[in-house]
Amino acid sequence: MARSHGVIISLALVAMAWAAKVPLTMLKDPKAKCLDGTQAGYYVQPTTTTANKNKWVIYLNGGGECDTKDACQYQTTNALGSSKYFEAEVDANGWFLGSDYCTYNPDFCQWNHAYDPYCTQDLHAGQVTAPTEDNYGLYFAGHHVFTAMLDQLDAAPYNLRDAEEIILSGASAGGIGVWMNLDYLAKRYPKAKVTGMTIAGHYFYATYYDGVNHTAPGGMADFREEAWPHSYKLYEAYVDESCKEAYEKQGQSPAACLLSNNSLPYIESDVFIAQSMTDSVVLTGHDCWPSDYMNEAPEQAFMQAWSHNMTVAIEPFMVPEESKTHRLPNRRAPKRGVFAAACYTHTGFTHAAPLLNGQNFYQVFNQFYFYEATNVTSASFKLADTCGVMCNPTCSA
């Protein structure tokens, strides 16, 4: 009876933890502003276990990006551009690896969790401190928000400065933002094991579908190659420093470093990606592709070409870890992992679907993260569908 009673109490505590509300904390750094100039904020859920006091998951939220005056000013009317619309409390249920629901996220549910809700529309990269006509009188300050959050978390009672393990994760625009900030984080906390995990965050330049039934560019930013220098200037963007240096040495714009297909060769930290082979938001929001006609021959051909490009983009992640050589003595090459499903989705990666080799992305990331402590080969965390377009039977499970 006593043991049964203990189980009931344990289950009750898990349920309470899942339902626990995480309060908003406002940032103190005057540079940490939302798009409209209101002060930005964040949410932090500290661990309740001594064993995890120096382990962190930091989650960068998504929510698109803007590069025109009308689109950016529109976002100041909601939480994606103004803290006036932030919730006083949220739950951590949707923070992927930062979720506190241990049934679905058993390995990281009891770590410290921090959440940047994203109110800057700049892929977490902006460094604007003085709005001008050139940036529509708005604050693109995503990188400043990120560093200000770290500054406050470094202090007691959270003591992020003592971190031993940090996973920087993000979805959509937050996933893209991981790439700009990951090696910065690793250099800031040199004693910590710093790892990146992106969901719908690994992309190449956009190409507009211009066939029959094509749509017009919407309110999302232009991802074509020629458009990125404008965004880079608009945001006064912070990008990976090694990537920036390499592009500038070649006489090219470091704007390219805003996309991971370009910055990946320069990223020194370990990274795992969860990616759709036919991303629904990118196809419709960035490529002018008409989903209403998705089964027509021209639209199918474009989707197949896009899927092929994604197959090429994930090739560096598929290289076996066992075949890599050390970059420097006593320093291995960065570890790469991938979970790429042939589904028509964007951030729809859950405990239930999609599955690859019968596993969800949480399970595959687990094998990636703890690889060095196991006897598995790296093939266990380098999974990508090869069946074609939208052919994974678990996509809509």
Structure description:
The protein is 28% helix and 15% strand. It has 397 residues and is an alpha/beta fold. The chain has a ten-stranded mixed β-sheet, with helices on both faces.
Please render the helix and strand layout as text.
Layout: H1 2-19, E1 22-26, E2 41-45, E3 55-60, H2 69-75, E4 89-90, E5 112-116, H3 142-154, E6 165-171, H4 173-188, E7 193-199, H5 228-235, H6 241-249, H7 260-263, E8 270-279, H8 280-285, H9 297-313, H10 315-318, E9 336-345, H11 361-369, E10 382-384
Parallel strand pairs: 3-5, 3-6, 6-7, 7-8, 8-9, 9-10
Antiparallel strand pairs: 1-2, 1-4, 2-5
Overall, the morphology is globular
Low-confidence stretches: 1-18
Mean pLDDT metric: 93
Classify the beta-strand content into a percent band.
15-25%
Task: Tally the helices.
Answer: 11
**C-alpha Rg (nearest Å):** 21 Å
Largest sheet: 10 strands, mixed
Spatial separation of the terminal alpha carbons: 39 Å
Q: Say how many strands there are.
A: 10
Helix content: 25-40%
Strand order of the largest sheet: 4-1-2-5-3-6-7-8-9-10
SSE series: HEEEHEEHEHEHHHEHHHEHE
What structural category arises from helix and sheet content? alpha/beta
Index terms:
alpha/beta; disordered N terminus; 10-stranded mixed sheet; 28% helix; 397 residues
Kindly summarize this structure in a few lines.
The chain has eleven helices and ten strands.
